[in-house]
Amino acid sequence: MADSDPQQRPPLSPVNLALRLGAIGAVTVLIAAALAYTGGYFSPERVTPARVVDVLEHNNGEHPGFRRNHPKGICVTGYFDSNGAGVELSSAEVFSATRTPVQGRFSLPTGNPYSPDSAAPLRSMALRFQQANGQQWRTGMNSMAVFPVGTPEAFFGLLQATAPDPATGKPDPKKAGAFFAAHPETGAFLAWVKTAKPAASFTTETYNSVNAFYLTNAAGVRQTVRWSMVADAQADSAAPTADDYLQADLQQRLANGPQRWSLILTLANPGDPSNDASKAWSGEHRQVNAGTLVIEHEQAQDNGACRDINYDPLILPSGIEGSDDPLLAARSAAYAASYQRRAGEVESLPHHANAAQEQRP
Q1: Helix (H, G, I), strand (E, B), or coil: what is residue 324?
Q2: I want to staple 161 with a disulfide (CB 3.0 to 4.6 A). Which of 20, 141, 169, 179 is the partner?
Q3: Total domain count, the chain
């Protein structure tokens, strides 16, 4: 993903940083809007989930039947093979030495379902683990390791500072530069932005939870973790230039055999923040390889298994809990509002006809 010698790259100007952030802005727009819902930052009126979706539609355009964020994607199915190592950390059935069916989705983090695959350097993976006991684990992960900032106020400020100027259609470099100067916590994210390039394949990316979660084992011992899906496949040197190369690449790779990722649980050390997704956990950490995700098949998202799944990060089985990170509750509320609106549209669209709506457990 990164150049071999990033330090030889010229530094990005504030306006270029703003433009790069704009290219992956769908992710930050959704989180910032969701935070506005929970914190009331769009005063004087408190923002409802419906108004959050309105903001997304205003920023991204209206695309009925599609997700309001990450609308361009592809469904995948497979399973998770636990190796039993996660049992010491969590009582969740998914970590026992069993095979768990998985319905997932790869996506591009823009607000337009017709965006070219090169429009953003970020790739996303969402998964639903369907345990035999009826409980589910849903997770949405991204190829970046941290969020830009860690508080609702700062995130709203970032959204304002990088918003397009009506006169130019581009961010104001003075506003963007002033924001970054006032928020040194953005350094980790900006370091990623400076070297990030669009990947040539969904299958070569590592996907990170970014937010922290709590795992609780059978003895009641709770451990703060972040997790990652680390790809077995090796990254290619450069991405193609075609608009839709990611789907074609995935189809070709799956035709040659299943694709695999290792689920790596990173255990927090004392002092690691559980409530600030902008901070990397630095230094040595114990990591547990809990098993292997195997993706076997892909389907178009119009009628695939993932189409009617809301990948709410707080739908969790016993043994996994959301942390005190305020982003988690905010994401859950915004996802629910977006899903409700989308579910009401699909029946009226020819390519979504006769689809049964998923019932939330």
Answers
A1: coil
A2: 179
A3: 1
Instruction: Give the residue carrying structure tokens 């997932």.
Output: 104
What does the alpha-carbon distance between residue 171 and residue 13 come to, in Å, rounded to a whole number?
12
Domain with 264 in it: what CATH number? 2.40.180.10
Owning domain of residue 232: 6-352
Output the pLDDT for position 158.
72
Maximal C-alpha separation, the chain: 60
Contact 46, 40 (CB under 8 A): yes
State yes or no: pLDDT of 1 exceeds 60.
no
d(CA 188, CA 119): 22
Task: Choose the catalytic residue: 70, 285, 351, 352.
Answer: 70
Residue for token pair 């689809």: 355
Q: What's the residue count for the chain?
A: 361
Is 70 one of the catalytic residues?
yes
pLDDT digits (tens, 9 = 90+) for 91-103: 999 999 789 999 9
List CB contacts of 332: < 8 A, sequence separation 6 or more: 312, 313, 314
The DSSP secondary structure of 28-43, one letter per residue, reads: HHHHHHHHHHHHT-ST
pLDDT tier at 315, thresholds 50, 70, 90: very high
Within-domain flag for 358: no
State pLDDT tens for residues 106-157.
998 776 777 888 888 889 999 999 999 999 999 999 999 998 877 666 666 6
What SS3 state is found at 221? coil
Does residue 280 lie in a domain region? yes
